[in-house]
Amino acid sequence: MTALTIDVHAHVLLPEIEALVGGLPGLAEARALDARRNGPAALAVNGPMVRERVPLLTDPTVRLAAMDRQGVDVQLVSPSPSHYHYWADEETAEKLCRLAGEATAAHCSAAPDRLRGLGLVPLQHPRLAVRALDHALEQGLSGVEISSHAPGRELSDPAYEPLWSRAEESGAVLFLHPFGCTLDERLDQWYLSNTVGQPTENAVALSHLIFSGVLDRHPGLKVIAAHGGGYLPTHIGRSDHAWSTRSDAGAGCAHLPSSYLKRLYFDSLVHDPHVLGELVRVAGPDRVCLGSDYPFDMGTEDPVGALRAARLSEADFDAVRGGNAAALLNLIPA
């Protein structure tokens, strides 16, 4: 029996989504906010970077050839986070999520033994989220991708309780991938909006899930945090200290914050073998999965090589390379 190599962090671009929202009220304002947060220098690089990768993002044949070069057997494919459009009204958001699920499922149908997909839910409209999750699962997708927050709502918001309950009950995967950082213009130079913003958003979102007790109430949730969970896993000792010494910090969750890392999953995309080794240590070798951020420039073109550089034990290497994701996605090696 051959172990699978499984990449849980890979994206698909869905032109149908952008056609749906094009020209709608709110789009221009959202794009202006995105431009303000990233700054002109980043936008000047982002446009050409994405355009040259369109075949990698849209053509399953090109994707599969790239996977072969990387030695990846299976990708968990999620929509580009640029498709969230959390500004959209209820009617548009519901159409968008249905379209995202159907289009992602169609993309993955080109090679169902190698491509598994995720849909989207409208975090800005919590009452629609369960229906969107169910629709994604009906398309044969493994779950949904969510950002670190929606406008005016953190992931600790009680309005999301039905979503967490349904995801836990159904076994759906929730892939936590931020898009945009609320530090705004403080990060609008040198691509700090991504290099600092993404790991910050990951840490904030995971802290809301932990400290609010979401993971106490829903211990069976399957949450995969992109970018290795950001800053939180390597700085979790500060959270433990606050929980232990302050009544306000410890009021919402039952256990030390660090203990919840072993209830979450993390991708391996941290760009530093020492940080990856620490992530495996604090979360456990059964809680880290291979991730590449295919095919964007902030990812890695050699995810297996990046994992090998962490010098894990053979058993831990095999678990991260694919064993953990195979169990998470209910895949049986051939």
From TrEMBL:
Signal peptide, first to last residue: none
InterPro entries given in the database record: ACMSD, Amidohydro-rel, Metal_Hydrolase
Residue stretches making up the Amidohydrolase-related domain: 6-331
Keywords: Lyase
SUPFAM superfamilies for the chain: Metallo-dependent hydrolases
Domain of life: Bacteria
Record's protein name: Amidohydrolase
Organism: Streptomyces akebiae
